[in-house]
Design brief:
- With about 425 residues, the protein is α+β, with helices and mostly antiparallel strands.
- Strands 1-2-6-3-7-17 form a 6-stranded mixed sheet, sandwiched between helices. A 4-stranded antiparallel sheet has the order 4-5-19-18.
- Helix 3 crosses helix 9.
- Its cofactor is Zn(2+).
- Belongs to the peptidase M20A family.
Length: about 425
């Protein structure tokens, strides 16, 4: 939502929509769609075929989709296309709800003992790379969007099927924000698999109301070269980078009543190559997950304080991973349990599943951080569960996919009534 936009989160319009008559998706059509999505290999940066598939599916149902081009020429040289479609509501003063899901997967894992894009169904599980993360959620929002077209909604529904969530920068949703595509949105549902990556052990039905953020330290350590037979005459940058890595691994980090505790994880040390030479340069990369209240500058200051306390002989520059734009940061966020979207999703979960949902919080990062933090949208993750995400044997529970689609339809109807 732009700074001068009027928030509509607690809108109560005069729509005649009967909440008890909210349509349900067709389970067979939903799972057929999921199989079709899984059978298309779509590792990040290789989404052209699945983008076309999603576009054609929406177009065949009369939803007038559009391609939204994503270009990043400087670092990745990436070119791709999000797919965007909108259902127009009857009341311009009603809120707009964003439905967001990504089309890409991680790179295909070699350890599969079957076709990683088989879409095989067995015992209520559909197998394939990306089946759970997140083609199950993508199929759910696509069929939910199609069902919502038959509802008399006061507010708009914006569907965004995006590229490159699994890649290094989340370029698809980043571009939605930078191009103003989501400026008129008032809240967002992201159908990522929630329970499997929640901070606590929870089961569906679940609503995840926030996520930790992530900063990526990229630290240069400059020592002094010397002959390897006399290491005491130089300053070994690799050794000192290791000392710094160990110290950052023990860093005191923030804590939050909802998001839990932050974390640090040294990922890589690069440096040294010459025989019999003390390494004069090293590069240290450290993952840092943060909670609400911890800023990028806080993270920088923490690392610089550790460097000073160690008293290293090297010169150290604390920086962060290069990004296409300085605004590309995964900031933490929390959505209020009392927000009207959360209330709608809670009521819809009762209507569809017959039980109250569990509230939880995501342990890592994704496009929902861009929406919840950068775009300032109340954002809720509600997605199907499964196992082995990012690994061989990945699967999603088919009943969860259908339930998520039905919950999204019912909640959107309530929120936009």
């Amino acid at each position: 939502m732009t700074d001068d936009a009027t928030p509509h989160g607690d809108y109560s319009g005069d729509s005649d929509f009967d909440r008890d008559a909210a349509p349900r998706v067709d389970p067979d059509e939903t799972i057929d769609l999921l199989q079709g999505l899984v059978r298309i290999p779509s590792p990040y940066f290789e989404e052209a075929e699945i983008s076309e598939f999603v576009y054609d599916w929406l177009d065949a149902r009369g939803h007038d989709p559009e391609y939204h081009h994503v270009s990043e020429p400087d670092i990745t040289e990436y070119e791709g296309d999000n797919v965007v479609a909108r259902l127009a509501g009857s009341d311009p003063d009603a809120p707009t709800l964003l439905l967001n899901a990504h089309m890409d997967t991680v790179k295909l894992v070699e350890d599969w003992d079957e076709d990683p894009c088989s879409g095989r169904i067995e015992d209520g599980k559909l197998y394939g790379q990306g089946a759970c993360d997140m083609k199950g959620g993508l199929a759910a929002v696509m069929t939910a969007f199609d069902a919502l077209a038959d509802c008399d909604l006061a507010g708009d529904v914006l569907l965004t099927a995006v590229v490159d969530e699994e890649g290094p920068y989340g370029l698809g949703t980043d571009r939605l924000i930078r191009d103003g595509v989501v400026d008129d949105c008032d809240a967002a549902i992201v159908t990522e698999p929630g329970p499997i990556l929640a901070q606590e052990d929870i089961e569906n039905p679940a609503l995840l109301l926030g996520a930790r953020g992530r900063y990526f330290y990229d630290i240069e350590v400059r020592g002094q070269a010397a002959h390897g037979s006399k290491p005491d005459t130089g300053v070994n940058a690799v050794v000192e980078a290791g000392e710094l890595a160990a110290a950052l691994d023990d860093l005191d980090v923030g804590d939050h009543p909802k998001l839990g505790t932050g974390s640090t994880c040294p990922l890589k040390i690069e440096g040294g190559s010459q025989t019999l030479s003390v390494p004069e340069r090293a590069r240290l990369m450290v993952d840092r997950h943060v909670v609400v209240g911890e800023t990028l500058e806080d993270a920088r200051a923490d690392a610089e304080r550790v460097v000073e306390e160690l008293g290293l002989g090297s010169e150290v520059d604390v920086g962060f991973r290069e990004a296409p734009d300085e605004g590309i940061r995964y900031g933490p966020y929390v959505t209020d349990e009392d927000h009207s979207l959360v209330s709608a999703l809670t009521e819809s979960t009762r209507a569809v599943a017959g039980v109250d949902p569990t509230y939880g919080y995501f342990s890592s990062v994704g496009d929902f951080n861009y929406l919840g933090d950068r775009a300032g949208l109340p954002t809720v993750i509600v997605g199907p569960d499964g196992e082995n995400i990012h690994a061989a044997g990945e699967f999603v529970f088919t009943d969860d996919v259908v339930d998520v689609a039905d919950i999204v339809v019912d909640a959107a109807a309530r929120f936009l009534d």
